[in-house]
Amino acid sequence: MKRRNFLKACLIGGTTIAMGKTNKGWASGSFEGYPESMGVLVDTTRCIGCRSCEAACNKEQKLPEPDTSFDDKSVFEEPRRPTAKAYTVVNQYEKEKPGGPVYRKVQCNHCNEPACLTSCFVNAYTKTKEGAVIYNSKVCVGCRNCMIACPFNVPGYDYESVTNPVIKKCILCYDTRLKVGKPPACVDICPQEALTFGHRADLIKIAHERIRSNPDRYLDHVYGEKEVGGTSWLYLSGTEFDKIGFDPSLSNDPIISNVKDFLGMVPMVLSIWPALFSGIHLLSKHESGGEGHDTESKEEEP
Amino acid sequence: MSSYKHLIVAALSLGAISVFTPLAAQCAAVPDSVTLNQNGTLYKPFDFNHAKHIQQLKECAGCHHHTTGTLVLDPDCARCHQNSSPTAVVSCKGCHSAQPFSPETLAEKHADKQRYHKDKMGLKGAMHQNCIGCHQKEGAGPVGCQECHTRTEAGEAFNSSSRLGAKPAHAKKH
Ligand code: SF4
Ligand code: SF4
Ligand code: SF4
Question: Which residues form the 4Fe-4S ferredoxin-type domain (chain A) (predicted)?
């Protein structure tokens, strides 16, 4: 049953994409699916790496205390990725360059056609009309397909609560803010207005206008306008995007390429499923036995 | 005199004014020090040394752009506003909204397709970019948060600063 649903979901996903492509070759993937979509424009030329957004997200999403305080600038030594304990991280790039350093905030980009959603066969993910990609821990089976499928390497796996919820990522503050029209906590706190909240359609105009009126400051590209079919989080940069941690190999085609990869992955997924389940079962037994487990580093191995 | 009154009102809305001394020749009266007290609950108010900045910058429009009786300097703005009269607004707050992303503001912007200035910065962004941007450009003046703003206890807790052994605010509830 689950397998059938899963294949059906893939098929539907595939059809949507095929339709989108034939109808709108010039703007591949930007189908008019979410006219009310909100979004955030990140202007990396404004970010000063203060990490206030990380602190605000931590509080808003009631995440565990960080290992070191949010003042700690030593975290910039290595690029980080979002985890189950930190839905957003700020990374530093180009520290040696005269114009540097450049900072970039990373979180779920809330894709118009999310690979996480397409890859999930129990429909744990929802793209809301406001643009947020949210996640229902109650139906999640912890298979971690979404972690593999996400082109931005976003969803984090919560090793501490083995039962519920298991996958964690930025939800655009959907429950507490977006739903009632309020800007996300990270946007609200940013001292530099490096983060601009608004209707996605307006943000795209604003972004191009910033480029037009300041061509020396910005590259002529709005990252996320078209990449993987468009994302709700958009980025402006003065430095080549691949130098600030973006994957230049991502095409404008939405999930289609991911679906292809993913379909190739299906047999593997189905065959590792039982193994995963027994693993989870063992872990939960471990947990209920009252013993904490500390296998994060081992589990992290792909 | 109405422009004088405007100045006081505007300055008051920016923050409490500690001292009044006529300083720059072209201005009627300017505060030597301005207390910025819109830092929310995480940071304490701080006194901005206005007098020192006047001495160093000389030109009011450097910070107040087209507001203090100076015509627009920015060539981009001048394309349309060359002949616009200077506005009487002095404080940042007079133009830059403290709630730039409120549902009302966003709905209004979204509905008005004709609107040119869709991207006007909010108050916090305008002030920080003005200050930090200039400090970075000049290679002088503070650029870090706590070099200007002293944290409150709540601010320390918010950042889970291990120095005070504080937990995040939400952790205390449990
Ligand atoms: S960035 Fe990744 S996790 Fe976020 S919506 Fe896109 S595919 Fe899903
Ligand atoms: S939108 Fe909300 S959940 Fe996402 S990074 Fe910002 S504060 Fe965190
Ligand atoms: S709060 Fe704003 S300026 Fe500070 S690190 Fe986050 S995005 Fe950058």
Answer: 38-67, 131-160
